[in-house]
Design a protein that fits this description.
This protein is of the alpha/beta class. The protein contains 33 helices and 33 strands. Strands 18, 21, 22, 23, 24, 25, 26 and 33 form an eight-stranded mixed β-sheet that branches. Strands 17-6-7-8-2-20 form a six-stranded mixed β-sheet. The two termini are 17 Å apart.
């Protein structure tokens, strides 16, 4: 294995993530059993799940009752450890399956699917996997296809025949107090109900199985689940199954003859339509009753053990080929591009031929991501008359407010579409009415979204995601889509990138800021526990997760389930507050917000305080700390336009904004309105360049919808401010937010005023404030006074990392003075700061270590390197990287706002970065950075790699 620098491979070469003998594709318990059998047969295996967990047929469908299961297999005993009839908890089933793979040393990857197969002269040679953000290759000699609809088998061209008939109904399991209204004759109570302790009392959560007529679901299976979810909208529904089990509409032609009544009666030949591909799903030549048996975990495990054994025995050793043929199942070519891949190590690269994919049709507006911004975007585009498709990885629309369980507003400007949405939820949810729409049942809001999109004429493809784009010059003309039924390319008129990661903009080559690469600062992330089915909302902040890091995301899900072992389940969605962002035609900064800047192209007016969930990096907040007062912020259309790319609007966390501006812009209520504006703009563009869109016409429609206030129509850009405003700011309190923001936003006009204060002001405190501002601007004149102040000031308490509930400063006054001194580049600065660093104890606060490390990176002086090395060698300063999932899981606790581990790692990372860039001492910096380059937390790994390479 070699280090991989995270560069863009495009379509000419792809990184090889792993080399195994057998690749198992699927999320079922059978997939786990197959991988365990491969391992028992002396072969290497890997499991790839398109869900964020394993146990599709049990935890995914809420088919969790052990009655009637044959539980002699140890894997079944781990999934269903109790002898009685009580249902297992979905979180416990998922954890049991993960533990089985971890204990066997079998790697697994979540939220990924194959989109192509590799062939060499000997047969199957690997699979190209699409994660949410990029492509990679897993080399293998055989594949077990345990995916529900046979995505690998279809890529391989396995001969399939249509089934003569399908069941007239499909069954969907929900947890609700009673049968939903109108379903009395089509709902069956599943006994016994779930029983869990809630507030020191036992609570009962009944389950119902709804029978849904297939005839009303339409002909497109990709939109079927959306129609099901739109049809059931009641506040009493607490939990819905992710998966609606159904039989594939085709069957394999392998082993010609009559279909088998049960999986156990299949011959080996019927399980292997080709010598290196094995089926473990409903494509097997089974009667419908036999396909239904695959929803039983004991049948899955037994068949998985058998299929895994066959696959292990079939693997042949053969030399690696120098060239490959790629199977994609289609012939539509073009200029396909993909987002940059990030991995800690790779086993080389694979050269790829020219790419082709099947056609999935076309639409006017494609919304990638059906979350907080994407679902409103789809509704707006469809209402405007555009043929609209929304892709959503999860099995619910709404993002963090539904699947993410943060079912409550913090701040936000609840006008326009958000007000309409809140009213619709309140009509369904009485408790939401009692709280005037400020909170809601997650399932109720998800169902309202589904119904609003369907009524507007749009379609949602759930369990589906975009993984690449097709370009026509600088314009996006198509989107590559992975669905549970296969992958292909959609021809598009305009794209709303609501992935939160700017995935499609990054794939198109738009410049992006990748959080963690430039600085080790990121807002905290949570994977919330659902303590019981009756929990309405749960927020958390216990880790850092890089959403572009497929391996790290997989680890994070396993870690969350190890933390919250007593919970009913954990969220299937990473609740990150900061992700990859585009560099757009304009970037909103904290200076714009605090100075009340207006724009001619505002599309939404956000409202929040600086809910930072971590520490801040903008110089403004090192001079004047943010407070808890809410602010208004105008967001211009230009922030949604990625530089150099046409046909894409980026909304949500991926928009163009300074990371320290995001806390004011990312509230759910505001992202909902921003997404609606983006969807409307996409529909109005009608395939014409977005940069030629009539912004005033868009704004007028947003005023009509209530998203914008009428006065916005008269706004122009209020920057730059006039001399009078700058002079007034200079005459005010320099370390107050608005004066500091105005002065920092206008350095050419403010520096002479501050330099005059530095030289002439009679007040020493005011002179030092002026020096602090000038130092943050990099002015050398401020250096001597700052050095004097640093030398004369004793270390204070500083600040240790805090995520949830962090407001105000994240560094002390002395920290800020040190940082300003380092920015001046004063020749004596390194010596002054080194002397200060040597005074720090082993339990030094993170903020002190942070500024010491930044100073080392800025000044790159040997004396600072020596001081940083001495501090790093103090007890407890080193050894905080996380490299092994099993070890991290063994140490897991149940704290939903855990900070101590992050504080220790951040402290070490900042110090070692400063040491390495200042010159290193005895290779200490490199050795620590190389450990962090493999850290399971993607931000640490990415930052370490950026420093090293």
């Amino acid at each position: 294995m070699r280090q991989f620098d995270g560069g863009q491979f495009g379509s000419s070469a792809l990184p090889v993530l792993r080399e195994v003998d057998v690749l198992v594709i699927g999320a079922s318990a059978g997939a786990v059993a197959a991988a365990l059998a491969v391992r028992a047969g002396g072969r290497r295996a890997m499991v790839v799940s398109d869900l964020s967990y394993l146990g599709e047929e049990s935890a995914g469908t809420l088919n969790l009752w052990p009655s009637g299961l044959e539980r002699s297999d140890p894997l079944l005993q781990a999934m269903f450890p109790e002898d009685g009839p009580e249902p297992a908890l979905p979180g416990a089933v998922k954890r049991a399956l993960e533990s089985a793979l971890l204990d066997a040393g079998i790697p697994f990857l979540y939220l990924a699917r194959p989109v192509a197969l590799l062939l060499d002269e000997g047969g199957l040679a690997g699979a190209v996997l699409a994660t949410r953000t990029s492509l990679c290759v897993v080399r293998c000699r055989a594949i077990v296809d345990a995916s529900r609809y046979g995505v690998a088998a279809r890529l391989a061209g396995v001969p399939l025949s249509p089934r003569s008939a399908l069941p007239s109904r499909v069954a969907w399991t929900v947890l609700t107090d009673r049968a939903p209204e109108g379903w009395a004759d089509r709902a069956e109570a599943v006994q016994p109900p779930f029983r869990m302790m809630s507030k020191d009392e036992e609570a009962v959560f009944p389950a119902w199985r709804l029978q849904i007529d297939r005839a009303g679901l339409g002909g497109d299976p990709k939109a079927r689940e959306h129609r099901i979810r739109a049809a059931v909208s009641e506040a009493q529904i607490r939990v819905t199954a992710d998966v609606v089990p159904d039989a594939p509409a085709e069957v394999s032609d392998a082993g010609a003859g009559a279909l088998c009544p049960a999986p156990a009666q299949l011959s080996d030949a019927q399980c292997a339509p080709r010598p290196d591909l094995f089926l473990l799903n409903g494509l097997l030549p089974l009667m419908l009753d036999g396909v239904a048996l695959l929803e039983r975990s004991d049948v899955q495990v037994a068949l998985g053990r058998r299929i895994g054994g066959l696959a292990a025995a079939a693997v042949s050793e053969r030399p690696a080929a120098g060239a490959f043929t790629m199977l994609t199942g289609g012939d539509v070519g073009g200029d396909y591009r993909f987002a940059p891949a990030f991995f800690r190590q790779t086993a080389g690269v694979v050269a790829m031929p020219e790419l082709t994919f099947p056609s999935l049709g076309e639409c006017d507006v494609l919304v990638a991501g059906g979350g907080t911004g994407g679902a409103p975007a789809g509704i707006a585009a469809a209402r405007a008359g555009a043929k609209t498709i929304v892709l959503e990885t999860q099995h619910a629309l709404g993002g963090v407010g539904t699947a993410g369980l943060i079912a409550t507003y913090w701040f936000g400007n609840r006008v326009g579409f958000t007000a309409e949405l809140d009213d619709a939820v309140m009509r369904v949810d009485p408790v939401s009415r009692e709280h005037e729409g400020r909170l809601w049942w997650p399932e109720a809001k998800a169902a309202v979204y589904a119904r609003m999109l369907e009524e507007a004429g749009g379609a949602a493809w759930l369990g589906s995601y975009a993984f690449g784009i097709r370009m026509d010059g600088d314009r996006v003309s198509g989107v590559l889509v992975s669905t549970p039924f296969g992958c292909g390319v959609l021809k598009v008129g305009c794209v709303v990138d609501a992935t939160g990661n700017a995935d499609l903009a990054a794939a198109a080559g738009a410049p992006c800021r990748v959080i963690g690469a430039a600085h080790a600062a990121v807002q905290g992330t949570g994977l919330s526990p659902r303590a019981t089915p009756g929990i309405r909302a749960c927020n958390s902040d216990h880790t850092f997760i890089d959403d572009t890091d497929a391996e790290g995301v997989t680890h994070a899900f396993a870690n969350a389930r190890a933390k919250f072992t007593r919970a009913f389940d954990t969220s299937p969605l990473v609740n990150s507050r900061e992700r990859r962002q585009i560099l757009g035609e304009f970037e909103v900064s904290p200076l714009d917000i605090l100075a009340g800047r207006t724009f001619s192209d505002t599309v939404v007016t956000a409202r929040s305080n600086f809910d930072t969930h971590g520490f801040i990096v903008h110089p403004l907040f090192m001079v004047a700390a943010p407070d808890e007062e809410p602010l208004q912020a105008h967001v211009p259309f230009r922030c949604l336009l990625p530089r150099g790319v046409e046909g894409v609007l980026v909304t949500g966390l991926g928009m163009s904004a300074h990371r320290d501006a995001l806390p004011v812009l990312r509230m759910q209520a505001d992202v909902q309105n921003q997404g609606y504006a983006a969807g409307l703009a996409a529909a109005m563009s009608a395939g014409t360049p977005l940069r030629t869109l009539d912004i005033r016409a868009l704004q007028r429609r947003l005023v009509e919808s209530g998203i914008l206030a009428p006065e916005v129509l008269a706004h122009e850009d209020s920057f730059p401010l006039g001399d009078a405003a700058i002079q007034q700011a200079a005459a005010g309190q320099l370390t107050s937010l608005m004066p500091a923001a105005i002065l920092l936003a206008h350095p050419e006009q403010s520096q002479p005023l501050l330099q005059q204060m530095l030289a002439e002001d009679a007040d020493p405190a005011r002179r030092l404030d002026a020096a602090l501002l000038l130092g943050m601007m990099g002015c050398a004149d401020a250096g001597p006074l700052l050095a004097e102040a640093v030398q004369a000031t004793a270390w204070d308490d500083g600040w240790n990392y805090r995520g949830m509930g962090q407001f105000g400063p994240s560094m002390s006054r002395l920290d800020a003075l040190i940082l300003a001194l380092a920015h001046t580049g004063l020749p004596d600065a390194a010596g002054v700061i080194a002397e200060k660093v040597r005074q720090l104890p082993a339990d030094a606060a993170f903020s002190h270590c942070r500024v010491a490390g930044i100073a080392g990176a800025l000044l790159r002086n040997a004396c600072l390197a020596e001081a940083l090395a001495e501090l790093l060698r103090q007890p407890g300063m080193q050894g905080h990287s996380q490299l092994d999932t099993r070890e991290v899981l063994r140490q897991a606790n149940d704290d939903p706002v855990e900070t101590a581990a992050r504080n220790r790692a951040l402290r070490e990372m900042y110090l070692v970065r400063g040491l390495y860039l200042a010159g290193d001492i005895d290779g200490l910096g490199r050795a620590i950075l190389e450990r962090y380059a493999g850290d399971l937390r993607g931000h640490f790994a990415r930052h370490a790699q950026a420093v090293l390479f």
